[in-house]
Amino acid sequence: MRSLEQVLKDGIRDIPDYPQQGVLFKDITPLLADHEGFSIVVQALAAAGRDADGKVVVDKVVGIEARGFILAAPVALALGAGFVPVRKKGKLPAATYEESYALEYGEATIEVHQDAFAEGDRVLVIDDVLATGGTVEACLRLVRRCGAEVVGTTVLLELSFLPGRKRLDGEQLGALLTV
Q1: By CB count within 10 A, which of 20, 94, 110, 174 is most buried?
Q2: Can you tell me the distance from the alpha carbon of 107 to that of 171, in angstroms, rounded to the nearest whole number?
Q3: In whole angstroms, what is the distance from residue 77 CA to residue 105 CA?
Q4: pLDDT tens, position by position, 118-132
Q5: Which member of 65, 67, 111, 158 is catalytic?
Q6: Annotated catalytic, 13?
Q7: What's residue 105's pLDDT?
Q8: Interacting residues of 94 by C-beta distance below 8 A, sequence separation 6+
Q9: What gap in Å lies between CA 158 and CA 165, rounded to an integer?
């Protein structure tokens, strides 16, 4: 069996100038197409939802649109927890809370259903890439606004040359790979 590090290095490719000039996009589609690699990644992400004895310590797993969904849904299944999508503005059908934030290359607004969490739910937030930290920071505000407790945030890939970790100082934050 390949190591997690090898799976990540094999499964993430760079796409220059996407979605705009000067941005180096980290494409995870090769990883998703690799059953063994994807399984290894899901288990590694799910570890953040367990304590040192392997006991599940979360009630819900949040996935941030769009690639965060792909990662968070199987993590929720692996943990026996519920899955909650945090989506771009206008994509959820019921009453929502929203948070706006700045991106590396623009601005955006995300939303969550107001009834997505029970008071005191313990939540693990999953996303694909930590860059500037704006998306994750907005998501954490949404989760807390709903009365839930953020147990931690784990990302597939952290871009260390951008200020995401610094922006989230004081948060429980993990990354499977830092570049």
Answers
A1: 110
A2: 23
A3: 33
A4: 999 999 999 999 988
A5: 67
A6: no
A7: 66
A8: 113, 114, 115
A9: 8
